[in-house]
Design goal:
Low-confidence stretches of chain A: none
Number of helices of chain A: 0
Order of helices and strands of chain A: EEEEEEEEEEE
Radius of gyration of chain B: 13 Å
Distance between the termini of chain B: 36 Å
Oligomer: heterodimer
Strand content of chain B: over 45%
Number of strands of chain B: 11
Helix content of chain A: under 10%
Shape of chain B: globular
Helix content of chain B: under 10%
Structural class of chain A: mainly beta
Mean pLDDT of chain B: 95
Strand content of chain A: over 45%
Number of helices of chain B: 0
Largest interface: A-B, 20 and 20 residues
Largest sheet of chain A: 6 strands, mixed
Chain lengths: 111, 111
């Protein structure tokens, strides 16, 4: 089955700096890669996703890149703000709809 | 749209008791997922349904866990008998194909 590894496990950044989280996956059949943000005590919320026919996708201050050859994808957050502090999860899925989640990255944005 | 609805939001019970968690998916979504989240094991997929039919229950820990989806607007996850190690946050998610939207979760504490 699919295995997703996520790094780093914790990330501390100064407000205004950029944050990058990286994930690798094992199943070459995976074709859908969402990112979720989970604030303390809340539900995971979908913030951006990318499909295998696209190399990069942007939505305001967040972007995701995908390298299918290397089987890795990354989340980039620019101009970080305190409200970006949360746990971020990457995931990968093949066409069967079953998501395999990474272990999560705790992002702390310090003012 | 109210999003995915789960009840109860919090449950405290004693070891050996039966626990039933409930989920109402987003209308029109044909996939429903049950997850468990703990600090030690992260987000684990327990079971998922497509068009009310269980597709993959390989994540269900043991026979004490069972899930049903009698119709497109309702699902239950039952633990009988409950044990302290079942303490976790249980999320229901619904979706169309790969895209999944999480409910607010049920925080379960088994004493």
């Amino acid at each position: 089955g699919e295995n997703v590894e996520q790094h780093p496990s914790t990330l501390s950044v100064q407000e205004g700096d950029s944050a990058v989280i990286k994930c690798t996956y094992s199943d070459s059949a995976s074709n859908y890669f969402p990112w979720y943000k989970q604030e303390l005590g809340k539900r995971p919320q979908l913030i951006i996703d990318i499909r295998s026919n696209v190399g990069e996708k942007k939505d305001q201050r967040i972007a995701v890149t995908l390298n299918k050859t290397a089987k890795h994808f990354s989340l980039h957050i620019t101009e970080t703000q305190p409200e970006d502090s949360a746990v971020y999860f990457c995931a990968a899925s093949n066409s069967w709809g079953k998501l395999q989640f990474g272990a999560g990255t705790q992002v702390v944005v310090t003012p | 749209d109210a999003g995915v609805i789960q009840s109860p939001r919090h449950e405290v019970t004693e070891m050996g008791q039966e626990v039933t968690l409930r989920c109402k998916p987003i209308s029109g979504h044909d996939y429903l997922f049950w997850y468990r989240q703990t600090m030690m094991r992260g987000l684990e997929l327990l079971i998922y349904f497509n068009n009310n039919v269980p597709i993959d229950d390989s994540g269900m820990p043991e026979d004490r866990f069972s899930a049903k989806m009698p119709n497109a607007s309702f699902s239950t996850l039952k633990i009988q008998p409950s044990e302290p190690r079942d303490s976790a946050v249980y999320f229901c998610a619904s979706g169309v194909q790969e895209t999944q939207y999480f409910g607010p979760g049920t925080r379960l504490l088994v004493l």
